[in-house]
Write a structure and sequence with these properties.
Length: 126
């Protein structure tokens, strides 16, 4: 219980698409808001995208709106981040995070999540 494992990170070129996946051993999965954060050296961890426990609400940081899509797969306990039109400034380590919540609309944007993965590197070359 409580393990998050990210996959899918790799080096791509500007304009490419990439899909990150996070396998979550959180039960029941529908009790958890999930999110993706990213971090580059010497900077704080940044909220990228989040989704509420029943997927009724999503939230994105402004720089990825219209390019990234977060979704939850309840059958497989996975959260994915579809990233399109990638830019060099999207280069970072991407982390999956989960937080148990009673709220059906809560999508925390601060790094207060209780559960974190180990991260997966995304590099976008120009």
């Amino acid at each position: 219980q409580g393990q998050l494992v990210e996959s899918g990170g790799r080096m791509v070129q500007t304009g490419d698409s990439l899909k990150l996946s996070c396998a979550a051993s959180l039960s029941p999965f529908s009790s958890y808001a999930m999110a993706w954060f990213r971090q580059v050296p010497v900077k704080e961890r940044e909220f990228v995208a989040g989704i509420s426990r029943y997927s009724s609400r999503t939230d994105y940081t402004d720089s990825v709106k219209g390019r990234f899509t977060i979704s939850k797969d309840y059958n497989n306990n996975q959260v994915t981040l579809q990233m399109d039109s990638l830019k060099p400034e999207d280069t970072a380590i991407y982390y999956c995070a989960g937080e148990k919540t009673q709220s059906t609309t809560s999508v925390p944007t601060a790094p207060i999540y209780a559960y974190w993965g180990q991260g997966t590197q995304v590099t976008v070359s120009s």
